[in-house]
Amino acid sequence: MAYITCKQCGFSAPETFFQSGLRVSRVKHKSIYQRRVCLMCRQEEQDKHKRGDRSVPKARNMLYTHCERYNRRNGTTLKPMEFARKFGWDLKRMTHDIEHTFNNWCPYCDGSFGTMEHGLADLTLDIRDPSQPPYYNNVIYCCSTCNKRKGQMGP
């Protein structure tokens, strides 16, 4: 059994410890190759990439879920980008607001997000006055506990 040395950490292991891949050239010539990075280093790269900027997917997910909820409650069929244009939601602005709130505290209970158990998952978007349309100036980022406690109550 042949051993391969990882290019990143120098760890030597059997070929089975390294991921295989399929390479296809422009003339449709197929060849199987062995990656020279071990599975542990590859996992570390993926974890680092995943932790990189979590607020962008969080903002996108909030936009999609609030759009779906709005459509369900009002019998409309708005797409997320139409919803964003109609109510003034902007992903860059949302991402900035998520990061700012997460690095500070919940506006309702003054709890620090850094001390909360689930990190960014604890940050939610509250519609301040549910009787009004969900314009971006009618939303506030808060912890999930306060958002659940507030429920459908007004401001």
Descriptive report:
The chain has 155 residues and is of the alpha+beta class. The chain has two domains: 3-49, no CATH class; 54-150, no CATH class. Helix content is 39%, strand content 21%. It contains five helices and six strands, in the order E-E-E-E-H-H-H-H-E-E-H. It has helices at 39-52, 55-74, 80-87, 91-102, 144-150; strands at residues 3-5, 12-14, 18-24, 30-38, 123-127, 139-143. The strands form three sheets. A two-stranded antiparallel ribbon has the order 1-2. A two-stranded antiparallel sheet has the order 3-4. Strand 1 (3-5) and strand 2 (12-14) form a beta hairpin. The longest helix is centred in the middle third of the chain and has 20 residues, at 55-74. It is elongated and about 70 Å long.
Largest sheet: 2 strands, antiparallel
Q: How far is it from the N-terminal to the C-terminal residue, by CA?
A: 68 Å
What is the share of helical residues? Answer: 25-40%
Overall SS class: alpha+beta
Q: Catalogue the unreliable spans.
A: none
Number of strands: 6
The percent range for strand residues is: 15-25%
**Rg computed from alpha carbons, rounded to a whole number of angstroms:** 23 Å
| Element string (H = helix, E = strand) | EEEEHHHHEEH
| Number of helices, counting only DSSP H or I runs of 4 residues or more | 5
Strand order of the largest sheet: 1-2
